[in-house]
Amino acid sequence: MAGDGALVRARGLGKRFGDFEAVRGIDLEVRPGEAFGFLGPNGAGKSSTMRMISCVSPRTGGELTVLGMDPDRAGPRIRARLGVVPQQDNLDTELTVRQNLHVYGRYFGLSKAHVRARAEELLDFAQLTERADDEVEPLSGGMKRRLTIARSLINDPELLLLDEPTTGLDPQARHLLWDRLFRLKQQGVTLIVTTHYMDEAEQLCDRLVVMDGGRIVAEGSPGELISRHATREVLELRFAPGAQAAAEPSVVDLAERVEVLPDRLLLYTGDGESALKAAHDRGVVPVSSLVRRATLEDVFLRLTGRTLVD
């Protein structure tokens, strides 16, 4: 993977905690202006990798450069140019929304005038202007998440790291947050996102890696990964629990691959409707059927044999 302009480059990057190897020699590169994702279940090594990139956890193996610098030698200089959104909001709940931005901005040595002006821009960006003088504690989870992201932008970072940005949010709050992140990308901010939500990775990421057990098991754009590891369509045949096993022999040759789940069969095929007709012609009668496009969830099932949602 070449490209001298990479904002993050890792070669053989590893992280060990005692006898436990959380990250096992991964290679990756993040290019300016892209949204790069780490997709995988809890425990895959995503957060450990993010902590090394954000210069708060030293690597125990391999090479890593962030913004062209070595985190072991230039941690403070790198952190001054990063925005970090942790998994858990760590806002000061006794301060107002606006005060959270003002106080955080002063940590970077920014002038009071600059912080005040920047805070107003970010309140508007996060759709929190009307709540600017409210204390943080009563805010909804989505508002707190948007404030955390706004706070991470106070120093105009070149690189924004978001660790599980929408965990625990309702669908409306998630979509609003996705919209805010898309706008940041349009403004030229480079994003690195970890998630175990497959739809989130498809929505946000230009390119991503799938991690499992501390290793990268696949890399590419969402479309490339689906094309490489799945088929164009998937036929879902749902049965009463346990009945799917009896139906499997009748449909196994109708698809490139058949996945057996507790209440259904997934037939990976280029033409779901034709496969469904053939199954009906053979006397297979599911409770319901669905033809859909392949997704990143199907990719993950292919690679690891389990879904991403914990």
TrEMBL record:
Signal peptide boundaries: none
Topological relation to the membrane, as annotated: Peripheral membrane protein
Domain of life: Bacteria
Keywords recorded for this protein, A-Z: Antibiotic resistance, ATP-binding, Cell membrane, Membrane, Nucleotide-binding, Translocase, Transport
Pfam families: ABC_tran
InterPro entries: AAA+_ATPase, ABC_transporter-like_ATP-bd, ABC_transporter-like_CS, ABC_transporter_ATP-binding, P-loop_NTPase
Molecular function GO terms recorded: ATP binding; ATP hydrolysis activity
Major localization class: membrane
Any Gene Ontology biological process: response to antibiotic
SMART domains per UniProt: AAA
Gene3D superfamilies given in the database record: P-loop containing nucleotide triphosphate hydrolases (3.40.50.300)
Cellular compartments annotated: Cell membrane
A GO CC annotation given for this chain: plasma membrane
Residue stretches making up the ABC transporter domain: 8-238
Entry's family note: Belongs to the ABC transporter superfamily.
UniProt-recorded name of the protein: ABC transporter ATP-binding protein
Lineage of origin: Bacteria, Bacillati, Actinomycetota, Actinomycetes, Pseudonocardiales
